[in-house]
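<purpose> Linking amino acid order to shape
<body> The protein record starts here
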Amino acid sequence: MLIREIGRGSYGTVVKAQHVPSGKFVAIKKVSNVFANPSDAKRMLREVQILMQMGRHRNIVKLYDVLEPTGNRDEYNDLFFVFKEHNIDLLTMMLIGTELTEFNVQIIMYNILCGLTYAHSAGIIHRDLKPANILLNEDCRAKICDFGLSRQVADLANPMHTCNKNAAQFLKEYVDSNVMMKYLHNID
């Protein structure tokens, strides 16, 4: 049973819903025209794979299910991702001017760092961490969401090993060359 729209993003709409048999509240993300662009389809597949791998961690959003459209496969356009529902994201909390205590900020930061540590230990770099991608519940427990731009790095637990194996590729993908040149120029 759909309750209300929670938000909109570049890839779809998120609604709050209730699973009628269990009574649990969930968030359903509808991604429209997911197969129209191959890079978008890859991004969605990557997000599903990463969330299935990491969704058991308490600071990573839990993906319950991916609902396939019914009917003719040639006509598939939309996918529906079913997530555990959360009260609010950090950006919305900041925009409405919610006052946070120092203790609340510490809890949020600790949760984000725990989630990132877990992701990095699995060799995953989020690449889109921002307040809108931090979900909060009523006691300020934070979960990281939206892994669509994430990348898996072979040996993130040992970054020097990764850099030495393929330093040019690593720098090309993760460091803007203009920033790197300014940095190197300033060292001289």
Q: What stands out?
A: The longest helix spans residues 102-121. The first strand starts at residue 2 and ends at 8. The beta strands are 2-8, 12-18, 25-31, 63-67, 79-84, 88-89, 124-125, 134-136, 142-144, 151-152. The CA atoms of residues 127 and 150 lie 6 Å apart.
